[in-house]
Amino acid sequence: ATGRGLGAHRLMLRLAFGTAGSFALAEALDWELSFLIPVLVVQLLAVMPAAPRLAQGLAAMAMFGASTYLALTTSGLLAHMPVLLTIAIGVVLFLAFFLQASGRAALMATRLLISFGIIPVVAVQSPDIASDIAFLILRSGIVAVLWVWIAFALFDQPKERRVGEQRDHLARTRRATVHEAKTQLVDDRRP
Description:
The protein is built from 7 helices and no strands. By secondary structure, it is mostly helical.
């Protein structure tokens, strides 16, 4: 197989392994919300061209924590004011859908949709278990990032493809720099 074909095969292997493995482990451990881990694994693997570095993985975990905490705090503060809670949820969901539609911060949008789609409903119906559900969502996010690292460790991209992607990135960067320099020269010549 060519480098491109091998890369596509490895992507499929990562997706299959990450989804099946994470779901099987969550079910074997009898975790609540076991479906959420494979959903997040697929979401992360689909958008990551390479294994996340340690800082990126920790940042993803922190973003899970922040979105979950924000949903829990908002729900706790506004649970007794259903109109304000509904408005707050609507604004956050609108922002999340806007982020997804624009193609920016798709992972953060997914985190907001999951957190604000589940936690406020639980907080209104059963406020005593809202923090437990928030913990389960946070745990799912952390475990999903760990599964992404495992999937990339087992089925990494072929070296030729990584080199080709780096070369393409450098070429795009050079073109952008040359374009900026030309624009600056033209701007400097204008009176």
